[in-house]
Design a protein that fits this description.
The chain has 417 residues and is of the alpha/beta class. The protein folds into two domains: 51 residues; 355 residues, no CATH class. 28% of the residues lie in helices and 15% in strands. The strands form six sheets. It has a seven-stranded mixed beta sheet. The chain has a two-stranded antiparallel ribbon with strand order 1-17. A two-stranded parallel ribbon has the order 4-5. The longest helix has 42 residues. Keywords: Membrane, Transmembrane, Transmembrane helix.
Length: 417
């Protein structure tokens, strides 16, 4: 019996002494071996040891060596302003390529600096007088467009993003500085340079807000890139990240492009707030399919001379058109003077930009409440799609994907870098 008791005592002693031993082992591993291993990884591990996490904000398209990227309607370049997650479903369903570019958020310090710059240009000197006024003081000048716009639009030289204004106006800050004091919304310009004096009486769409400046920045950067990258016979497309389109947009664009005159500047693939069918039609008209029940659904859109299109969710630019548009939009008294779609609409209305519109629209804004850079959208839209990629019932559901021709399969895949 005494031997059994002694054996139990020995086991209890063994357990009691083993606990500190285990604790010491844990402390040794955690306090010495782990830091030593981390130091090895940091200093001596071979290159390529680390695997970085994917950045969802940067995406590239990897293209195989045999086939070139397939862009909408044979465009040389296609850009989507803002966030990829809104548009990847659409891109995949249509099996086309585009590049994502960052937009400018309305709370950016660059936006506030630009509002301050607009205030400086408007305050003078020199003081620019409105379209119907005449200078009456020594420091007043009339609004006039630069006389070299047409020559620069067709030239081969590169264009800067900003115009120096012939030394008359200061350039906007290239690098955001410290936030200026809060600026109340200013009145938007109308026509060339008409600015209301009673800001409080202006409707919302005639106020120059942070959201409108941010949207202008996003488009201006891309227009500048396109102006300096295209060849004479190429065009590029700019899309915002909140669109839906006809499933046969690619085929319709290829057909319609043959009717464009050689000197076209711009084509609105989508538009709002105007009846673009009023402009002269330059394409032959929709086919008569009244007796053909087997014909696929299509909007059979036509090209009309633009009248006063608004909204910038989908448009195409030729090389000359991008350069001509940039030269107008960067001119200091006109730059950031209003919403960019109102500015472009005015340039078209006054025949400074040669533009055409697809009627009905091939690309529309989706019925969502907010985009990433502007307030609510989609409620001024006239056209509805005949065969949209997204379910028209508003649930964000994808319609059944159609078959892709064999020669267009597996040309690209999206990856994170």
């Amino acid at each position: 019996m005494s031997q059994v008791i002694q054996t139990l005592r020995n086991r209890r002693l063994l357990r009691s002494t083993s606990i500190p031993v285990l604790l010491k082992a844990v402390l040794f591993v955690g306090g010495f071996l782990l830091p030593a291993y981390m130091l090895y990884v940091w200093l001596l591990a071979p290159e390529g040891f680390f695997v970085s996490l994917p950045d969802s904000s940067v995406m590239t398209v990897e293209v195989d060596e045999v086939n070139k990227p397939y862009h909408l309607g044979n465009a040389r370049e296609t850009y989507v302003i803002n966030l990829p997650h809104h548009m990847e479903q659409l891109r995949t369903a249509l099996d086309i390529n585009w590049d994502y570019v960052n937009g400018v958020y309305l709370n950016s310090s660059l936006v506030r600096n630009t509002l301050e710059w607009v205030h400086t240009v408007r305050s003078g000197p020199p003081h620019v007088v409105g379209d119907e006024e005449k200078p009456s003081k020594a420091d007043e000048i009339s609004f006039t467009w630069p006389t070299d716009i047409d020559a620069l639009a067709t030239a081969n030289s590169g264009l800067d993003l900003w115009s120096s204004g012939n030394g008359v106006w200061p350039l906007p800050p290239a690098v955001p500085k410290e936030l200026p004091p809060y600026l109340q919304p200013m009145a938007s310009s109308t026509e060339n340079y008409n600015i209301a004096t009673n800001v409080s009486a202006q409707p919302q769409h005639l106020l120059l807000t942070e959201a409108r400046v941010a949207c202008w920045f996003g488009h201006l950067d891309l227009i500048h890139k396109i102006a300096n990258s295209l060849k004479d016979d190429e065009f590029a497309i700019i899309l915002e990240d909140d669109v839906d389109m006809e499933r046969d947009t690619d085929e319709q664009m290829k057909n319609l492009w043959s009717y464009l005159p050689a000197d076209w500047d711009m084509v609105f693939l989508g538009h709002c707030c105007s009846d673009e069918s009023r402009g002269q039609r330059i394409s032959p008209g929709p086919p008569d399919l009244s007796n053909d029940d087997s014909a696929p659904q299509s909007s059979h859109s036509q090209l009309h001379a633009s009248s006063a299109p608004q909204c910038t969710h989908a448009y195409a630019l030729s090389r000359t058109g991008a350069r001509r548009l940039l030269l107008h939009l960067r001119y200091p008294p006109f730059a950031f003077s209003r919403a960019i779609d109102q500015a472009i609409s005015w340039l078209i209305y006054t025949n400074r930009i040669k533009s055409y519109s697809a009627v009905p629209a091939l690309i529309v804004q989706r019925r969502i409440s907010n985009s990433d850079i502007t307030e609510g959208i989609g409620f001024w839209q006239k056209d509805k799609l005949v065969s949209s990629v997204f379910d028209d019932r508003g649930k964000g559901k994808m319609m059944k994907r159609k078959a892709i021709p064999f020669h267009r399969k597996n040309r690209h895949r999206v990856k994170h870098t």
